[in-house]
Amino acid sequence: MTTTFDAIVLGGGAAGLFCAAQAGQRGKRVLVLEKAEKVGKKILISGGGRCNFTNLGAGSANYLSANPHFAKSALARYTPRDFLALVEAHGIAWHEKTLGQLFCDGSAQQVVDMLMTECAKGDVTILTSREVSEVEHREGAFIVAASGTLYGAHSLVIATGGPSIPKMGATGYAYDLARQFGLKVVEPRPALVPLTLGGEDVLFRDLSGVSAEVDASANKAIFHEAALFTHRGLSGPAILQVSSYWRHGDPVTIDFLPGRPRDWLLEAKRCAPRTQFRTLLREALPQRLADTLAERLGLDGDLGNLPDKALRAAQERLHRWTFLPNGTEGFAKAEVTAGGISTAELSSQTMETKKSPGLYAIGEAVDVTGWLGGYNFQWAWASAHACAQAL
Ligand code: FDA
User: Fold this and answer.
1) Is residue 205 very low, low, confident or very high in pLDDT (cuts 50, 70, 90)?
2) Which residue in 9, 17, 10 sits closest to 119, CA to CA?
3) pLDDT category, 203, cuts 50, 70, 90?
4) What ipTM score was computed for the predicted complex, to two decimals?
5) Residue 137 has pLDDT above 60, yes or no
6) Given the CA of residue 33, which atom of ligand 1 is nearest to it?
7) Residues 239 and 289 occupy one common structural domain
8) What gap in Å lies between CA 114 and CA 120, rounded to an integer?
9) What pLDDT, in 10s, does the model give residues 275-288?
C-alpha cells in the first residue's frame, strides 16, 4: 500500500472534487481517485460549455427520488447562494439566463479551476487515470485498488456518478460497489433524455428542427418550456424535463397553445369567420408545425365554414395532444441518471451509509435527480458539503 488517508473520494467530478476540497480544508488528508485523464469532464461540457452551476430556486420539489424528503436537509444546509458566494469569491463572472439558472459568462473551465484551487487549499491529493476496480473493508479501513496500486483510508466516498454518456467514461461502478456492501439500488434509468416516436407519431419526425413553447406533461409533472421535434422524436427542455417522469407505456401530453382563453377557436370564428384555420394556427406556431397539426386534425378552409363541434374537438386536441413515445435515446444521450443508491441506505444529514460506517455516497450516484436547469450541480455541491462536514 502507498499512503494512508483519512478519506478517499472515488471520482473527480463535481461532487467528488467539492467534497474533497471541503474535507481537506477541515484538516482531513484526502485522496481523489479519478478514472479519466482529467477531472471534471462533465462540468466542462455542461450548460453548452458555460456550466449552469446552480439554480437560485433549488429546493427538494425540484428533485425526483423514492424519498422526496431526503434531499431537504443537505439542500437547506448548502444553498445556491452559498455556492454563488464561492463563485464570486473566485471572481467568476456569471449571469442568470432564465428561471433562476446561473451560468458562467466565460467558460465552464472556470468552475473546474475554482474546484482545483479549493482542493489545493485543502492539500487534497488528486490522482487521475486511476480506475478504481476493487474495494475491500478490512480492520476498520477501506483498501482501494486503482490501476494496480492500493490506497487505504478510514472513510470512503462514492462519487463516481451514474452511467449517462458512457462515451465520456461514465460508469455504473457506484452501483457495483453499493451492491458489494449490501446497499439497495433503485433501478437506474436515463433521465433528461430525448424521447423517441414510432407508430403513427412517426410522421412528426418530418418536423425535425422545429420547436415551440408548449406545456408538456407526463405522469402529473408539467413543464412550460420549448419542445423540439427531432429526426428520432421529441427533445428540447420541456421534453427533457418530462422524460425524467416518463415510464415506458406512458403518454406525453402537449398543449401546443398554452394559456389561451376558453373557446378561443369559436371566438376566432365569430370575430374573423373568413380567416383560414391553417392561417390562424400559423399565427401562433411555426408554419411547418401549424400545417402538420391542421392536416392531422383534418381541418381546412375558412373558420366560418367549420362546424362548432369540429372546432371544439380541434381545440381540445391542440391543448391535449397525446404522443405515445416508444422509448428514450438511452444513457448515450441522457443528461443524468435517475435512480441509483437508495436514499433509505443513507443518512440525509451526512450521506453516510447506515450499514457500513465510514462509507458515504454523494452526487449523481445517489437516487436524487434534479430537473434541468442547474439543479443537478446544486445537489452535487449540497450532498458533497453534507458529507465533507462528517468525514
Ligand atoms: P460526475 O459524473 O460528474 O463525476 C463522476 C466521476 O467519477 C467522473 O469524473 C468519472 O470519470 C469518475 N469515475 C467513474 N467511475 C470511476 C471509477 N471506477 N474509478 C474512478 N473514477 C471513476 N447539471 C447541471 O446542474 N447543470 C448543467 O448545466 C448540466 N449540464 C449537463 C450537460 C451534459 C451534456 C451532461 C451529460 C450533464 C449535465 N449536467 C448538468 C448534469 C451534471 O453534469 C451531473 O449531474 C454532475 O456532473 C454529477 O456530478 P457527480 O460528481 O455526481 O458525477
Assistant:
1) confident
2) 17
3) confident
4) 0.99
5) yes
6) 20
7) yes
8) 10
9) 999 999 999 999 99
Number of domains making up the chain: 2
Last residue of a domain, one of 328, 357, 382: 328
> Residue 142 C-alpha to ligand 1 middle, in angstroms?
24
Domain that holds residue 9: 2-190+337-390
Looking at the structure, do residues 166 and 150 belong to the same domain, yes or no? Answer: yes
Contact 77, 145 (CB under 8 A): no
Q: Check pocket membership of 269 for ligand 1, CB cut-off 6 A.
A: no
> Is-contact 296 256, C-beta < 8 A?
no
Whether residue 62 has its Cβ less than 6 Å from ligand 1: no
Three-state DSSP state, 53: strand
- 130, three cell numbers: 486511476
Ligand 1 pocket mutation pick from 42, 54, 176, 362 by most atoms within 8 angstroms of CB? 42
Q: What is the pTM for the complete model shown?
A: 0.96
Task: Please identify, among 286, 301, 328, the residue that sits at the C-terminal boundary of a domain.
Answer: 328
Q: 51, 35 in Cβ contact below 8 A?
A: no
Q: What is the pLDDT of residue 1?
A: 54
Q: Is the domain of 182 the same as that of 201?
A: no
